[in-house]
Amino acid sequence: MPKRALAQKRPFLLLSIAAALAFYYLRVSELPELYLIPLKGSAVGLLAVYAFVRHASADARLYVWALGAAALGDMAIEIDVTVGGLLFFLHHVLAMGLLLKHRRPAIGIHSWICGVTLICVPLAGYLLPYDPDAKLQTALYALSLGGMAASAWASDFPRFRVGAGAMLFVVSDLILFAEMGPLSGTQWAELLVWPLYYLGMFLMCTGVIQTLSKRDPQLRVVK
After folding, report:
1. Distance between CA atoms of 23 and 46, rounded to whole angstroms?
2. What is the pLDDT along the chain (223 residues), one digit of tens a residue?
3. Structural domain span for residue 183
4. Which N-terminal stretch is annotated as signal sequence (predicted)?
5. What distance in Å separates the CA atoms of residue 106 and residue 83, rounded to the nearest whole number?
């Protein structure tokens, strides 16, 4: 019954999950990598479609653009790491635009989490890569990543969905940074990146859109 309800009411979420699982398992198959690129991009791309068809607010549309940038980044990074990184940088900036618009009136004791995230994520982006030429570039990207995650935790969206999802995104990227240094060639690290990243994006997307739908039910596209 839950699966049937998901298929009928949230078909794009179901398709997104299917695409994410298919990419995760097929990437170790003999299927040419060129065919896996659109499959990889469709996982978050379908989350963008879900966001688009669920709510018609300006905030939802802004988040659709953020998800679209991430989906393009997923594909581009398989071809050019710099282009992919720039697209994810764009995702973080667009997502921050939405999250900062929905700041909590008072962060309280959670402010230390935001502060640690803002400081430690860029610092890790600088320290973890072994290549001196990659350190500054990675740190600048990590600054936008940390800003996005801190903004998610400081927003009035559900922390254990949107905030936690952003932190999962951070963990997945920290593993990527570590693969440029101390975790280079570590198989288990490579296996964790995609599940952590996709789960983080899924939690953030559903948390944002369902919250917007509850706050402005008259703007729901799908009843």
Report:
1. 14
2. 444 545 545 899 999 999 999 999 888 776 667 788 999 999 999 999 999 999 889 999 999 999 999 999 999 999 999 999 999 999 999 999 999 999 887 666 667 788 899 999 999 999 999 999 999 999 999 999 999 999 999 999 998 899 999 999 999 999 999 999 999 878 888 889 999 999 999 999 999 999 999 887 766 665 5
3. 2-219
4. none
5. 37
Cα–Cα distance for residue pair 106/198, rounded to 1 Å: 30
Amino acid at 94: L
| Spatial contact of 172 and 155, defined as CB atoms under 8 Å apart | no
What are the φ/ψ torsions at residue 32 (nearest 5 degrees)?
Answer: -55, 140
Assigned token pair, 27: 């990437």
Which tokens in the block code for residue 24?
A: 């995760």
Which residue has tokens 């917007």?
212
Token couple for 125: 């982006």
Domain count, the chain: 1
